[in-house]
Structures are given as structure tokens and as C-alpha cells.
């Protein structure tokens, strides 16, 4: 314990209860002997981390016990699933009769915003049809050439008239090579279609990086040095469960120090949302959180919460955050346990969100880093070399409806709360035996 030698010598040597009573400035009496450590909580925290505790961070609960205020005051908001009509035939019939319900997000937009939204969606649909045509055409040509090099050409070796009165087994053996050859062609077509889609994606990504910005590129909507709106705060949330504590908090520290280096740290808060149940890891997380605050000066901006009821696992953890604190933020960035993001990237995502009020999610382009095994190093090399090609290509073909990896992306909190809560799937849950995601 970091106290003076004289104070340490004055403490009792054997009676641990007396030690806690000596550290309790209020000299409270506890009904149970096991409760005596609660009296020394304040003294131990102040002596261990004297520079980490902000004013008002040590509070008392309803029973007068000292505790550390690790989270801001909750401001609850409602989050419930939208009713979905899952029958495609019924939805198509409603559309034919003019009873199709306009999505809520479109109903809130002005006429000009709806026209802008419809414009890029139309362009995106056209581009996807072009990609489909190019992929299928290339696959058909390649499959035709593949057919020409296979041994059985045409039906010259089989006379259907001779097979009428022929033994069934003999007929089957005559047809078997053609059946196998057809299977080879089908597998080739499926695999080549996959390769063709990757080819056109990489090609358009190369042209995008070579030519410059696309007319419909979201990155063209901002210069990159605009000041952030102080009314739009961003939460960096990291759901964790029994992770490597040193790695998690080292990544958070690097991210937060990078954000502070941009001068925009006042626009961000960090939430460590723990579902850990291993006692040793839980204690290590709390200790690492206090040390992180002390080292980077994150009082009042870096928060820690460990759930007692781990409902819905990771998705439920995010769900809890949105219900309790989501209304206090305009945007949130969900970090994986091993995520590290630069401050420039985070500020850039916020600027893109402010410049595009119709955008709900803007995905960054993650890159692997710090890998150890040979396979992982190959993946790391690949993402660095041709990852930008495929990212630019995906954006060109899909525009605002491209890939979302689930982390390292900025999310507009209000529409996420209103539209992204999923209810239980109808019928039998044969795909997953866990709770539905939120």
C-alpha cells in the first residue's frame, strides 16, 4: 500500500479488520465482519491513485458505502424492434396494390433530401447490374472455352435409339462420363464467377485510386480539416469478455493518445463495456482502467462498466449502452477487443458523418497489424498491398450499400436505436441456438 512508513508501522499486524477500521476516516460500525473492508475503500483508492480521481468521482450508494463512479449518469431511451413482414409474396402483393409502407427514415427526409437519396441509389443499382452482366458474360465465355478442352464433345458416342432396348447399367455407364463432365463445368462456372467478381472489383478499385475521387464518393463531401461540431459528441465503445487485459488497454491507450494529439479529445468519450466473469480478469480490468486514467488524464472521459447480467452477450452489451447512454451521443464507434484507430481516422469519420446527414453507417477500412504466425503475416501483407484496391472497388460498385464488418465503423446513434433492434425470428430457430442479435 503506498503510504508512509510511519503510517504503515502504526497499522495492526494481525487483525485485518482493525486495519480497515484504522483506514476508515468515519469510523463506521459494520453489522458483519466481512463488511469491514468497505470502510477503507475511499482511503485505499485515494492512496493508490491520488491523481486519477476527479472531483465527485467517489460517491456513496444508498446504504452509505463508498464506491467509485465509473460511468456517467444514465439517461434512458427506448429501443424496441420494428415489426417486419417477412413474407416476400405478401410484400410484393402490397407493392402491386400501392400499399407498400414508406420506410420511416425516408418519411423524415425533405423532398430535396429524398431526391438526393434516390439519385445515388439509382446509380448504385445501375452499377450493380453492370457488374452482374460483366461477371456473367465473362463466366459464360470462360465456361465455353473450358468445355472445348474436355474430352467428351457433343453426343457422338451415344445413340439414343440404341439405348432404348439396352441394359440400364450399360446405358448408365455410357452417360456417366457426360454427367461427370457436366458437374465439372458447373463447379468451374461457380468458382470462375467468384473470381470474375473479384477481378472487376479490383479493376475498378485500381481505376478509382488512379483517377481520383468518384462523383458519388462519400469522401468527396469533406475537405478534411473542418472543425468538429461541439454539439455532436462521439462515443468509442469497446465490448470485451475475458480478453487479454494488457492488449486491450494498450490498444485503447494508443487510440486515446492519438485522439488527444489531434486536439479534438473533448468531442470523444471512451466506454469499456465488460462482460467478463473470470474474477482475476475482472480485477485486472478495473486496475488497468484506473492506471489508464492516471497515465493519460482521462478523468470524466474514459469509463468502465462490468455487467452483472450478461444478457444477449456482445449484442446485448451494445444494446444496454444504447438504452442507458446512447441518447447523450450523436455517433458511436464500436471497437473490437484488438482494435486500434488513429485520431485522424476517427475525426475524419465524424466529419464525414456531419457532411452526410443521411448516412447511417460509415465503415473504415481495417488493416491487420502485429501478426505473429506465417499465415497471419500473409494476411497482414495482403491487406496492406491490395486491400485498398478491393475497398475502393467495393465502394464503386455498391456505393452506400457496401460491406459492414461490424466494428471500426462510425454509427449514427439515434437511427440505430430506432431501427436496429431485432426481435425474435419467427418459426423455429434452426440457424442459431443463441439469442437474436440487436
Question: Which key terms come to mind for this protein?
Answer:
438 residues, Spore Coat Polysaccharide Biosynthesis Protein SpsA, Chain A, 3 domains, two-stranded antiparallel sheet, 14 helices, 8 strands, 8% strand, disordered C terminus, transmembrane helix
Structure description:
There is one protein chain. This protein has 438 residues and is α/β, with parallel strands linked by helices. The chain has 3 domains: 5-66, no CATH class; 125-220, no CATH class; 232-366 and 405-419, Spore Coat Polysaccharide Biosynthesis Protein SpsA, Chain A (Alpha-Beta Complex), CATH 3.90.550. Helices cover 47% and strands 8% of the residues. It is built from 14 helices and 8 strands. α7 (168-211) crosses α13 (387-398) and α8 (245-261) packs across α11 (343-355). The chain is elongated and about 110 Å long. The model is unreliable at 430-438 (pLDDT under 50). Residues 236-418 form the Glycosyltransferase 2-like domain. Belongs to the glycosyltransferase 2 family. OpgH subfamily. The chain crosses the membrane at residues 129-146, 178-211. This is Glucans biosynthesis glucosyltransferase H.
Amino acid at each position: 500500500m503506498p503510504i508512509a512508513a510511519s503510517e504503515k508501522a502504526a497499522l495492526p499486524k494481525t487483525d485485518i479488520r482493525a486495519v480497515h477500521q484504522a483506514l476508515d476516516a468515519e469510523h463506521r460500525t459494520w453489522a458483519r465482519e466481512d463488511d469491514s473492508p468497505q470502510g477503507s475503500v475511499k482511503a485505499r483508492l485515494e492512496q493508490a491513485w491520488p491523481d486519477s480521481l476527479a472531483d465527485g468521482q467517489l460517491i456513496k450508494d444508498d446504504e452509505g458505502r463508498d464506491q467509485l463512479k465509473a460511468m456517467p449518469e444514465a439517461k434512458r431511451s427506448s429501443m424496441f424492434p420494428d415489426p417486419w413482414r417477412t413474407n416476400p409474396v405478401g410484400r410484393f402483393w402490397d407493392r402491386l396494390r400501392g400499399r407498400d409502407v414508406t420506410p420511416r427514415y425516408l418519411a423524415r427526409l425533405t423532398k430535396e433530401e429524398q431526391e438526393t437519396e434516390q439519385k445515388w441509389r439509382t446509380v448504385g443499382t445501375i452499377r450493380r447490374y453492370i457488374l452482374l452482366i460483366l461477371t456473367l458474360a465473362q463466366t459464360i465465355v470462360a465456361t465455353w472455352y473450358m468445355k472445348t478442352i474436355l474430352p467428351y464433345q457433343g453426343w457422338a458416342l451415344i445413340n439414343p435409339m440404341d439405348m432404348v432396348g439396352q441394359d440400364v447399367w450399360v446405358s448408365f455407364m455410357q452417360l456417366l462420363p457426360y454427367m461427370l463432365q457436366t458437374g465439372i463445368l458447373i463447379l468451374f462456372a461457380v468458382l470462375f464467377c467468384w473470381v470474375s467478381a473479384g477481378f472487376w472489383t479490383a479493376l475498378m478499385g485500381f481505376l478509382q485510386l488512379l483517377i481520383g475521387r468518384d462523383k458519388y464518393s462519400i469522401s468527396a463531401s469533406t475537405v478534411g480539416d473542418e472543425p468538429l461540431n461541439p454539439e455532436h459528441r462521439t462515443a468509442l465503445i469497446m465490448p470485451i469478455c475475458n480478453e487479454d487485459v494488457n492488449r486491450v488497454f494498450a490498444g485503447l491507450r494508443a487510440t486515446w493518445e492519438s485522439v488527444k494529439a489531434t486536439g479534438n479529445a473533448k468531442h470523444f468519450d471512451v466506454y469499456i463495456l465488460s462482460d467478463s466473469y473470470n474474477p482475476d480478469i475482472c480485477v485486472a480490468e478495473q486496475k488497468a482502467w484506473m492506471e489508464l486514467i492516471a497515465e493519460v488524464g482521462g478523468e470524466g472521459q474514459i469509463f468502465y462498466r462490468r455487467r452483472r447480467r450478461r444478457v444477449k452477450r456482445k449484442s446485448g452489451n451494445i444494446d444496454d449502452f444504447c438504452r442507458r447512454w446512447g441518447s447523450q451521443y450523436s455517433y458511436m464507434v464500436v471497437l473490437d477487443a484488438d482494435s486500434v484507430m488513429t485520431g485522424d481516422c476517427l475525426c475524419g469519420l465524424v466529419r464525414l458523418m456531419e457532411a452526410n446527414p443521411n448516412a447511417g453507417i460509415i465503415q473504415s477500412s481495417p488493416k491487420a497489424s502485429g501478426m505473429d504466425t506465417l499465415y497471419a503475416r500473409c494476411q497482414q501483407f495482403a491487406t496492406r498491398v491490395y486491400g485498398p484496391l478491393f475497398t475502393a472497388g467495393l465502394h464503386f460498385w455498391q456505393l452506400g450499400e457496401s460491406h459492414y464488418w461490424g466494428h471500426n465503423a462510425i454509427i449514427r446513434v439515434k437511427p440505430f436505436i430506432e431501427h436496429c433492434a431485432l426481435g425474435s425470428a419467427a418459426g423455429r430457430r434452426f440457424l442459431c441456438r443463441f439469442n437474436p442479435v440487436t
